[in-house]
Amino acid sequence: MSQETPSNPLVPIAIVVAIPVLVCLLLMLTDPGIERSLLWSSIKTGIILIVLGGAISFGVSRLAERNTPR
User: Fold this and answer.
1) What are the pLDDT digits (tens) for 19-31?
2) DSSP the chain
3) pTM of the model
């Protein structure tokens, strides 16, 4: 019998979210009417929000794990 490792359920969600974001980014990079400074500022803001959301999610999951009865 082979042992299957459980896959992370966030991977399909990340792929579904990442594809439209990457297409929009590609369109924004190729469109000559968009200012580059505005584009890079929005990318930096998005990265900061993703890191902040991940940190909050991680912290909340640790708190929930600590408060579960055993």
Assistant:
1) 988 888 888 888 8
2) -PPPPPPPTHHHHHHHHHHHHHHHHHHHHH-TTS-HHHHHHHHHHHHHHHHHHHHHHHHHHHHHHHHS--
3) 0.60
